[in-house]
Write a structure and sequence with these properties.
Layout lengths: L17 E4 L2 E3 L5 E3 L3 E4 L20 E3 L4 E4 L11 E6 L13 E4 L5 E11 L13 E6 L6 E3 L17 E3 L6 E3 L13 E3 L1
Length: about 200
């Protein structure tokens, strides 16, 4: 015939505690017998690791398209002393990837205003990450094309002038390479090329 199986629930147990137990059986006439005394210890209380928020990225506030700009962060720590890794969100949909270094560099391909931020994680338990840092605003500008400016429109020679000087400048942001040619045998130009 079916017999019920006795069970017992001890309720909520404490962490890192040894408990002792045994089973005592009694019959209908009051006779009893007991099992050996057994024991077990509960597990230690789990340690919950946390990673503190890193500092706002530090670096320049502006730059130009395709210019490599460097930023640094830091200040994060693990609550159980593990090593820290960092990554940057560059604000243009790209990330630096995780690194043991707290610095990173990036180039932006379009002009605009971007907001960059940093995040930290445990180097051992890589799924444990910090909140994102405060954001830093940076402005990326488009470089102005080189513009040639010559200081004179005419070079007037007479019997008393054998040498004339003029200046070549560049009002743009990028480098201008220039060359001068002459079409008369009596004119000598020096220098004939340069960079400005």
């Amino acid at each position: 015939s079916d017999k019920s199986i006795p069970s017992y629930s001890p309720g909520k147990l404490q962490y890192n505690t040894r408990y002792y137990w045994k089973i005592t059986a009694k019959d209908s006439k009051g006779a009893s017998t007991a099992s050996d005394l057994w024991s077990f210890r509960t597990e230690s209380k789990p340690v919950v690791e946390t990673i503190s928020q890193p500092s706002m990225p530090n670096g320049v506030d502006s730059g130009n398209i395709n210019e490599s700009l460097s930023y640094s962060t830091g200040g994060s720590s693990s609550s159980i002393g593990h090593s820290i890794q960092y990554q940057f969100n560059w604000g243009d949909g790209s990330y630096s990837g995780w690194s043991n270094s707290a610095t990173g560099s990036h180039q932006w391909s379009s002009a605009g205003t971007y907001y960059i931020k940093a995040q930290a994680r445990c180097a051992t338990h890589t799924s444990i990450v910090s909140n994102w840092s405060s954001t830093k605003q940076i402005i990326i500008s488009e470089l102005k094309k080189p513009v040639l400016i010559v200081s004179t429109n005419n070079l007037d020679f007479d019997s008393t002038k054998t040498n004339l000087t003029f200046n070549i400048t560049n009002s743009g942001d990028t480098v201008l390479n220039w060359n001068i040619t002459d079409n008369q045998n009596w004119i000598t130009v020096n220098p004939i090329s340069g960079t400005t």
